[in-house]
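REQUEST FORM: STRUCTURE PREDICTION
Request ID: SP-0412
Submitted by: Lab K.M.
Chain count: 1
Length (residues): 292
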Amino acid sequence: MAVVKKHSDADAAVVSGHINVPDGFRLAVDLAGNPWQHRVLFLHGGGQSRRSWHRAIRNMVGNGFSVLSYDLRGHGDSDWAPDGDYSLDAHVRDLTAIIESLPSRPSIVGAAFGGRVALEATAALGPDLVRNLVLVDLAPRLDPAGIERVRSFFRVSRDGFDSIEQAGAALDQYAERSMTRNFFKLRGLLRIGPDQRFYWRWDPRVGSDGFFTPPDLEARLSESAARLAVPTLLVRGTESDLVTDQSVAHFRECQPAAEVVSIPGSGHLMKAQDLNVYCAATLAFLKANTGR
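STATUS: Completed
RESULT:
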């Protein structure tokens, strides 16, 4: 890994850099915590970035874990795929390359789309390379209403926005609540395209239906869930329109050994107070399954 810079994220000193992956481009990464401690690898959701995890990372480092988080291909500071390949297989190749570069088996935490990638890679690699798995609001069977809400956000975002305020309004509608009115924070999530319009900091192609909702997705994820051979935790909000009670029941059928924690009143995008509950549940699981 080539180190780009060091910076401080509150209580956690973070080293930022990049990793070259076999497909011929670079992924942006953050490292935090004592590298001799057990490592937790974080994957963000579609349309987000590794910065989405900053509070969770501080929590993990403060509890004695080391952390690696990265921007998925086409997101944040990572390169866009030259051939436009944002398929699940492509993302799994990237994650596999990162896991194989580590000196010991990591725990993997994946949210939403990142959870798909984490689930697929963990099922394929097994306990020889992965210690355990945490899925955040991701299950093989997703509710169609939630899928349509997310798809609509990608669709609206594809052609960019006239202003930062317009982008913020689209984000609020997607989250079904007011996310932020901090101008500078919103500006940091956006880039200016050649047409001088504002775009989110991800390749618009990542949200195309062929990549986001391939026809065999549920069957594929269900098969992978059934093959999981490492301790697994699913954390979801009771108000999620993606991972519903029916989704949880189906996941338990696929993987009866998995643990499930439901956060009352939380939706797909967790509020600040819900994140504390998530961190507590994840920490308890990781400590129980890493011998800490």
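NOTES: The chain has a mean pLDDT of 90.
Reviewed by: T.R.
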